[in-house]
Amino acid sequence: MKALPLFVVVLLVASPVLGAASPGAPAGAATALTGAAPAQVEASPSNETIRVLDIDEGALVRSKVESEYVDLGPSLDFAALRAGGQIQLRASVERIESVDDVSRRSQLILGELNRVEQRAIALQSAQQSVITQYNADELTTREVLVELARIDAEARDLEERRVALRELARETPDFSVDSGRLAALERELDTFTGPVRAHAADVLSGKAAPTRFSVRTSQTGVALSSVTDDTYIREVYRGDLRNRDESGVTPTEALDKVAENYPGVWQSRATQNGADVVGAGDSYLVRINYDRGQLYAYVDSGSREVFKESQTRPLESLSNGTPTTEVKDGLELTVDRTYPGGPLRIQLNESASGNPIDANVTIGVEASQESTLLGRTGSDGTIWTVSPSGTYTITVIRGNAAVVLTTDPTPTPTLATNTTEENTSTTDIRPTQSLVTATTA
Predict the structure, then answer these.
(1) Which residues partner with 402 through β-bridges?
(2) Per the structure, how many domains does the chain have?
């Protein structure tokens, strides 16, 4: 890995650019529905939608929302992978701690660090291979989630080894490992982890309830999202926005880029200086806690753009999106429309009294002509999922009464970086493989 200086800036005071940032409106207004029945009405969003990094529509190759359940095969694989990682970690630590000679101990530490770096490079290749195979229809959506969850699990194990090696180096007299090298490796391993991948592993292992996942890919990028019991989670990686051959972004510039791209988040951060940035090697991580959730944004030093993000947002903090309502047979069905992969809220009430109704809800996507049972709305009449990318139909049947609502997702409130990705025909499922390499110190 490239050994570069480490910069750590915590709770930075905003620069003039940051101070000038102002909340931005969603990128484009929602498209009005046509041919709707008289009982169908539409309202404007109740408040601003948080901007997101996404796959550019012109470069989108595949997009699918699919329900996932516990799967014994992947569950056993995850357990074996975790056990193997722990065994390898303990073996490495014990081998190094058993050596008294400082020179030999130092060689062992550097050798282990080299191996971790090489595995990080291999994970980059593996991640790109998963995207390429999915685009070529050689992997199913479930298989993509399984593979990305495996990559996530190995990256987390490698991070544990990195931390252990850092501590062993500190305990070794007259020896040190360049802090920039260690931090650059940490940022690289961050590339392969995320809240959606971790949640997919929990679902497939039976540790979390079945849920629906949105998977969207370009030639070198992947966007994942899902809804847990009470939280919307999202992670996006854009390989086209990485440029390891150049370096020159300062910590303040990284903060400026995030403030520019996420004005609503920046304005509502938990405290006036409630953001921190950690940088090393060829990328910077900017972390922000704000009144509606948490944002991790990664800025590439070469492209000077946000190339990866993860967002965690409690459902209770989300806006109502763009509500669309259908009333029939005494049932009032409201869908708070959102962008592809965004948090989609469905509400069912009695049209006369307004009381919530507990009933089964199904969703069908026009492009696939498939219909899936989402579940029951519960005592509050509400159920959450993630939005499909195209026209979809929500259906509720309660006894002899039925209500059906067909609608479309809204435009995605994207970052400025979304316009930089090269356009790719959505019919082209043979993308060229563009692997990213790193230089070891």
Answers:
(1) 397
(2) 1
Model confidence over 172-217: pLDDT tens digits? 999 989 988 998 899 999 999 999 999 999 999 999 999 999 999 9
55 domain-assigned: no
Determine the Cα–Cα distance for residues 245 and 313; give it in Å rounded to an integer.
34
- CA 352 – CA 55 distance, rounded (Å): 42
In the block, residue with structure tokens 């806006």: 319
Distance between CA atoms of residues 399 and 311, nearest Å:
40
Give the CB-side neighbour count of residue 216, counting CA atoms within 13 A. Answer: 28
Q: Does the residue 334 lie in any domain? A: yes
How far is it, in rounded angstroms, from Cα 330 to Cα 327? 7
Domain with 362 in it: what CATH number?
2.60.40
> What's the distance, CA 142 to chain centroid?
16
Which pTM was predicted?
A: 0.83
Identify whether the C-beta of residue 50 lies closer than 8 Å to the C-beta of residue 313.
Answer: yes
Q: Are strands 343-350 and 331-337 parallel, antiparallel or unpaired?
A: antiparallel
Residue 325 burial (10 A CB sphere; 0-12, 13-18, 19+): buried
Task: Give pLDDT tens digits for 332-342.
Answer: 999 999 999 99
Asked if 339 and 389 touch (Cβ cutoff 8 Å), the reply is no
Helices 72-97, 141-171: crossing angle, 10 deg rounding: 10
Token couple for 346: 């469905």
For 171, 240, 303, 415, 430, the CA distances from 421, given in Å and listed in that order, are 46, 6, 12, 12, 17
Residue 326 domain boundaries = 322-407
Let me know if residue 363 belongs to a domain.
yes
In a domain, 366, yes or no: yes
The per-residue pLDDT for 73 is: 81
